[in-house]
Design goal:
Layout lengths: L1 H13 L3 H9 L10 H14 L15
C-alpha cells in the first residue's frame, strides 16, 4: 500500500494535479515502509482471528499487560 500511495502522489504531482500540489505545499508527508514483514504478517493474522490489534513481540510472545 505504501508504494502505491507514493507512486500515486508522484504521478499526481508530475501531472500537475492541483489538490496534490496544494497538499504538498501545505504539509509534510512521511511514508514508512514495512520493515518487519514477519511481524506485520503475524499481527494481520492475529487481527483476522480476534478482530483486535494485539501487541506482539519480536519473539511472538504476547505482552503480559
Amino acid at each position: 500500500m505504501t508504494m502505491y500511495t507514493v507512486l500515486n502522489v508522484l504521478h499526481s504531482y508530475v501531472n500537475k494535479d492541483l489538490n496534490t500540489i496544494r497538499t504538498l505545499e501545505n504539509s509534510a508527508l512521511f511514508f514508512v515502509p514495512v520493515v518487519n514483514l514477519d511481524g506485520f504478517t503475524e499481527i494481520g493474522r492475529a487481527y483476522k482471528g480476534t478482530g483486535k490489534l494485539e501487541k506482539i513481540r519480536k519473539n511472538r510472545h504476547k505482552y503480559a499487560g
